[in-house]
Amino acid sequence: MLELSILGLPTAFFAGIASFLSPCVLPLVPGYLSYIAGGSVAPTVSSAEARIARWRILGLSACFVLGFSLVFLVLGASITAIGRLFLSYRYELNIVAGVIIVISGLLIMGVVRAPLWTQRYYRFESKASGGNPWSAGVLGIAFGFGWTPCIGPVLGGILALGATAQTLDQGMLLLGVYALGLGIPFLLSAYFMTPFVRRLGALRRTGRYLRIVTGVIMVLMGIAVASGQMVRFAIWLLRTFPVLGNIG
């Protein structure tokens, strides 16, 4: 669990943030928030009513985040279960997972061009009207499935790492932290909607830098996984940065 805590969990969290800031997610966040809220997300009413409205939107957005988090938790459990079926081929599994993680990192950085199918999403229309927890949760589940091709390079690397986890709990924890990294910015953008819209351009630029950093980390982690040096790498990080021992 040591190498998963020190390496996997922070990487999964920042990978989730990078997914939120990706070109195929970030520009569509205001539209999603508007649907979740059942209309305008920038009420022009008194400050007290606006504050109540913001908390209401935040609550509905939390239902949305829970929806796609459930999808990622199921994916994490499933990929870990599949990985455990090949315990007798753990060496080969680590090599394959490491290669996938390295390729994912290169895709995130833009060093390797992603296939066209990873730049699209599948949109699921909900028949329920927005503005209630049920529709927000259903939309979150649809988001989890529909945006999987779009965030595929990031999610694929995290899933590959999850396949090497020793237990289902570890795999679900890894994907849960990824969902947390994706969900927290969404909740912040829901509560601070007006400043969020004004700073979309700056967030796009920040997203580019974050994707590069995340990509480099994933490439290094992929090499460590493929070479079987994850534990040694984790111990080196722990000695170099003792604060990492508080993670997990």
Automatic annotation (TrEMBL):
PANTHER family xrefs: CYTOCHROME C-TYPE BIOGENESIS PROTEIN HI_1454-RELATED
Assigned keywords, A-Z: Cytochrome c-type biogenesis, Membrane, Transmembrane, Transmembrane helix
Compartment(s) of residence: Membrane
Claim: Membrane is one of the keywords in the record: yes
Any one annotated GO CC term: membrane
Annotated protein name in UniProt: Cytochrome C biogenesis protein
Occurrences of domain Cytochrome C biogenesis protein transmembrane (ranges): 9-225
Transmembrane domains' residue ranges: 12-36, 57-83, 95-116, 137-161, 173-197, 209-238
Gene Ontology terms: biological process: cytochrome complex assembly
Membrane topology qualifier: Multi-pass membrane protein
Predominant localisation class: membrane
Signal sequence bounds: none
Family to which this protein belongs: Belongs to the DsbD family.
Cited InterPro entries: Cyt_c_assmbl_TM_dom (IPR003834), Cytochrome_c-biogenesis_DsbD (IPR051790)
Superkingdom of this protein's organism: Bacteria
A Pfam family: DsbD_TM
Entry annotated with the keyword Transferase: no
